[in-house]
Amino acid sequence: MTEIFERSNNLNWSGIEFPVSLQSISKFEKQNETISVNVLGYKERCGVYPLRISDYDRQNEVNLLLIAQEENQHYCLIKNMSGLLNMQATKHDHKRYYCLRCLNGFDSVDSLNKHKEYCQKHNPVKVDMPAEGTKIEFRNYDRSMSLEVPFVSYADFEAFTELMDTCQTNPDRSYVSQYQRHTPCSFCYCIKSIDDSIYPPLLRSYVAQSEEDDVAQKFLDWLENNVKDIFNKYFRKKMIYGEIEEMEYNASDLCHICDEGGFDNKDKCIRRPYNLYCVGGNVKPCSINQAKCGTTVISQEN
After folding, report:
1. What is the tens place of the pLDDT at every residue in 241-268?
2. Stretch 147-169: mean pLDDT, rounded?
3. 105 and 34 together in one domain
């Protein structure tokens, strides 16, 4: 404690009121030109997130975690940023290097520094998750393509909005004024099967490391390779179909697609589906509609 007090006496605290507010940190940095201060917050709903990220890259970087409970607030010194953020970002325990503006982690300092050149041009962001217990339910799920194919990919992009150069519009004619473009900076997608025991969910994500990084093309390349692997592994082999499956198929009187009954064996279609395994019979209209779909549906978030 004595050493801390001695160091604090060498700093310029003029005009700084205690307890120090987030707004006062900027003044502190201007008065102490060798120190930059970053402050992270914490909420149970979204975890650790950036509260205040310094615009300076200085010799002495101080990272603080602000713990707040109603009107009581306390700053804690973060000694191990990788240890703190790994808990919510990855299942691996090896050291990672984090960008405090977007909280994306990298395996090397060089990758982080390259990313910072791109990310520091934009404001810090935080993840805001729905309140615990809330959920969104699909309506008319029976019309969903995900019920008609064995694999579905759910994808989402994050993008920066960048201003565009435009020309003078003609006020005498109708027009659409385009003033900004969305530039992808990261993506995440999850490939889900109708049976996790056959194909466990695959989650992949990527964050741009520079302005030259073509995030959209990388997304297409990755997803194309995954879909090709799925097709070669599951759609070019004989269906698993034994005596037990034969008995279940013959005894079934419900369509496994629409769950409606009232048909006999002569109405049943070919036992597929899609060379994975037999899950029951289906009526011809359902089978025809199912056959219209490909092997994988991609659901994209706007």
Report:
1. 678 877 777 777 666 555 665 555 545 5
2. 78
3. yes
Whole-Å CA distances, 268 to 85, 239, 242, 295: 54, 17, 18, 22
Please list the residues that pair with 294 across neighbouring strands. none
Q: How far is CA 27 from CA 2, 139, 290, in A?
A: 25, 53, 64
Neighbours of 146 (CB within 10 A): 16
d(CA 100, CA 186): 16
The tokens for 23 are 């707004």
Q: Is the pTM of this model over 0.70?
A: no
d(CA 293, CA 288): 10
Q: Are 277 and 291 in contact (CB under 8 A)?
A: no
CA atoms in the 13 A half-sphere facing the CB of 5: 2
42 and 8 in one domain? yes
- Chain segment 119-140, per-residue pLDDT in tens: 877 777 666 666 777 777 666 6
> Would you call the peptide bond into 171 cis, given omega within 30 degrees of 0 as the criterion?
no
Q: Is residue 124 part of a domain?
A: no
Q: How many domains does the chain have?
A: 3
For residue 278, tell me if it sits in a domain: yes
Q: Which amino acid is at 53?
A: I
Token pair of 27 as six digits = 């003044």
Strands 151-163 and 296-300: parallel
Is residue 215 within 8 A of residue 249, CB to CB? The reply is: no
271 vs 242: CA distance, rounded Å: 12
